Amino acid sequence: MTQSAESWDEGTPKRLYVITGGRQPPEQAAIDLVTLIVARTPPQPGMKREHAAILTMCHYPLSVAEISAYLGLPFSVVTVLLADLLQATHIEARDPVPAAALPDITLLEEVIRGLHKL
Length: 118
Prior knowledge:
There is one protein chain. By secondary structure, this protein is mainly alpha-helical. The protein contains five helices and three strands; from the N terminus they run αβαβααβα. The protein has helices spanning 13-20, 49-57, 64-71, 75-87, 105-117; strands spanning 36-39, 62-63, 91-94. The chain has a three-stranded antiparallel sheet with strand order 2-1-3. α3 (64-71) packs across α4. The chain is elongated. Residues 1-8 have low confidence and may be disordered.
């Protein structure tokens, strides 16, 4: 019995099951959509193509949401793949850089008043 070509379409549950080996995202993983991922090593021979693709695209930091979009895979599947790469120390996960605090409006108003007096 052979698999029909349509059962292995890119988004089918069977394909996603094969990619993850049936595993679920680890609960202890501190990976969310805005976590930045950067590769620490180049792709290795014999890696799954999804792992290699992540290492190739993450030569500069990318968010998990971007990786998911570029691969065309759901967040849960990408999380499993990233957990594999983290465990093997092929990638580094970073928290996003927090946005700079907005300046105090009253301080800005005082500076403007001081400049007008000059």
